Amino acid sequence: MSLFNVYPLFDITPVKATDVFVYDENGTEYLDLYGGHAVISIGHSHPKYVKAISDQVAKMGFYSNSIKNPLQTELAKKLVSVSGCKNYELFLCNSGAEANENALKLASFHNQKHKVIAFKNGFHGRTSAAVAATDNAKIVAPLNAQQEVEILELGDLESLENALQKNDCCAVIVEFIQGVGGLDQSTAEFYESADALCKKYNTCFIADEVQSGFGRSGEFFAFQKFNVTPDIISIAKGMGNGFPIGGILIHPSIKASFGLLGTTFGGNHLASVACTTVLEVIEEEKLMDNVKVISAYFLEKAKNIPQIKNCKGRGLMLGLEFNEPVADLRKRLIFNQHIFTGSAKNPNLLRILPPLTLQKGHVDAFFDALKTELK
């Protein structure tokens, strides 16, 4: 049986990874500045993480959510202490798309409305409502297009209020730093006004922190730079450091009831231990402080590359924008310099999403390699 051919693949086969490095079957070392789509937060094969998962799987890997799982409770407590999001409740699932799907569904249950407002260049996943709220018509099937979604310009408060005034919107969903779309951000005025408008018109304000959460922006959540109180916060990517896990944080104004949401694998024993360990390492190794230091260093180094037109993003969720497409540059960085970077919807943008353990020496190596390939 062959694999369903939906991924264009680079001819590289990783077999091992440690911290910020990946090694292929030939023993070639690659500097990982992409982290597998911002998934690797505490570094590949972190010893504490490996031990925690190994110890847990030796005891119990899985049982259903119909029994008590103290590991979920422990995770929820640790998430509150590290994130600072007091009073929120946690529902666990398996991925970012699932997180956003459950967020949108819960919003609709809560206020009994059906329409969703999202923003241009936003990406929220590939499941039914999440993909309908994603600004990419190529991945929206006719089945998904039945969802009623209005996609607005990011930052357009007038259009947002005009849409909310119709009183049929269950949710406004926004990435505070856009990921796949190309690292664009709006202003404090927009985010704070959008939050206020949602509260005025009984609409759930959803912060999509799937990619930007868990310290990647320098704050635990990217929205925490602003004076907003999301009704629902979606999380995934870096929360498991490679183990599949997602979730939503739910404001206490939204009430639970039996059967409202559900999942088979969400919050299983291994996933819970993986995420709790990630949170412990983020705290113990002061990785959010490291993000801020390394981000400032990276952006300063970028100023010395005249071909870079613009630097986008925040923390270690960054984009280097050039005056021309970067697809060939990205390939040369991989095959000539052995450095992984990422692409975006913006063809001129090189995405930088490394493990949060990145050090200045790694940044120096990247810019030396970049200069070589730009000659």
Features:
34% helix; 375 residues; Aspartate Aminotransferase, domain 1; alpha/beta; 7-stranded mixed sheet
Molecular structure report:
The protein is an alpha/beta fold. It folds into two domains: 14-43 and 286-374, Aspartate Aminotransferase, domain 1; 48-284, Aspartate Aminotransferase, domain 2 (3-Layer(aba) Sandwich), CATH 3.40.640.10. It has helices at 35-38, 47-59, 70-83, 96-111, 128-132, 157-164, 188-200, 269-284, 287-302, 327-335, 360-374; strands at residues 14-18, 21-24, 29-32, 89-93, 115-119, 149-152, 169-174, 204-208, 232-235, 246-250, 310-314, 317-321, 339-340, 349-352. The strands form three sheets. A seven-stranded mixed β-sheet has the order 4-10-9-8-7-5-6, with helices on both faces. Strands 1-2-3-13 form a four-stranded mixed β-sheet. A hairpin with a 2-residue loop joins strand 11 (310-314) and strand 12 (317-321). The radius of gyration is 20 Å and the shape is globular. The termini are far apart. The mean pLDDT is 97.
